[in-house]
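Hello,

I think I submitted the NAP job twice by accident. Can you confirm which output corresponds to this input? Input:
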Amino acid sequence: MSTQNYLNYIAGHWVPASDGATTKNINPANTDEVVGEFALGGRADAARAVEAAAKAFPGWANMPMPKRGDILNKAANLFEARANDIAEALTREEGKTLAESKGEVARGASLLRYYAGETMQPIGEVYPSVSPTTFLYAERVPLGVVALITPWNFPVAIPTWKVAPALAYGNTVVLKPAELTPLTAWHLVDVLEKAGLPPGVLNLLVGRGSQAGQELVENPLVKAISFTGSNEVGARIAAQATVRGAKVQLEMGGKNPVVVLADADLGKAVEITIAGAMLSTGQKCTATSRVVVQREVINEFRDRLTERAKSLKIGDGMKPDTYMGPLVSAEAEKTVLSYIELGKKEGARLLTGGEKLRGGEYDRGYFVAPTVFDQLTPEMRIAQEEIFGPVVGMIEAKDFDEAVRLANHTKFGLSASIVTRDLGLAMRFIREIEAGIVHINSQTAGAEPQVPFGGFKGSSSGSREQGKVAREFFTQIKTVYMDPP
Ligand code: NAP
Ligand code: MG
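Support: Only one job matched these inputs. Its output is below.
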């Protein structure tokens, strides 16, 4: 099978990189398979994409908002019509199971539709004025060119939840997806082009973070940057972009806990922990990474969790019975395996997993066994740092108060869950847990498109994505005092 070539989309044209550079998109479940070869844009290409977006801005900002919504609606239809192709592309380039990919693609279509709907909603407010003749109102207007920098782990959902509101509210966009997963972003841009976006309104720039991404951070024509990814890169982007006056939004890592109280349905607690920790191979910002378990039930919970982790079917995500696919890259595999070694050295007890899987199909991909530790202490690095793999660690707590203290003992604050039948304690958990997303008797992962999404503490710069709240970032407010001539 010959490798298909994909180009960047700048100023309404599909173009190669100006220096001809390309990058191979490799299937992490079978590294012999090249999913596609992509133009790899550099700084000059990024600057060109920004200029194209700047040129397209006045026309797009002046298009009536519901007309912009029509284009998003059309794109949602086209997106759904090729949902199977996009889901397959997602599994082949990122590794998650086809069932998860289908869910993510369906969510992408809902996001396009949701923001199409937002284009029919009020975008301002009329205020009473102290003057009898003054018409006083505040309206939301676009920012200009926005750069969207996205990670590889949700390469459909995250670009869509940034692109759709950015466009709906009248901004023009340069999208820089992660170099590891450009094919799904290519589909998103392709359907938006076919839905009728004018040239330059949305530009696709596949390129390295350190090159193409860096240009977007520094270019003075870029008025705002919405970034999702690691804390390390996020902090650097914020430092560089805020000093030049750009608006910055950061959604970053997590170290998300499940608290299991003594009264919990332990079967349910195990399912919640396994789903949160192992689906998408643990590579979700909202993945469960710590389980804080009340002393009375820790032995039984440990045995059942270990048993369940051992039973999971690991393999190529394209196969229907696979529960967990590979890690996304050799680098990710190396990091995860090194955290497992670190956990053992730090004195945590390895209950199952802990190694790279070998033999047969496993030799062609980045497969690591579902891994469970117990006897974590709160200061261990494996209890503090984001591992981003199929690794979960148990921490013992004597009671509810200690469990919440331990759950909060992290620099992150994205999502958290509690499993209990006690409504009073569940309500105290909601009050006391330091997390932007709280689950009661459900897994730490999962996000519906109509509600705010984002974290507390080090997980976020404080703004929120998705739902109506997305307009806080993607618009600015103009207050108008209007009097008769
Ligand atoms: P990453 O390494 O920080 O990369 C994120 C994006 O930033 C990629 O597109 C990357 O490009 C780009 N980038 C890297 N260096 C850059 C620079 N100097 N200037 C501009 N852009 C730059 O993160 P990742 O490994 O892709 O994703 C995993 C992380 O994302 C985890 O920490 C996870 O928790 C977090 N995440 C958070 C959320 C959330 O909503 N809170 C959701 C999903 C994931 P290249 O990769 O092409 O170099
Ligand atoms: Mg990376």
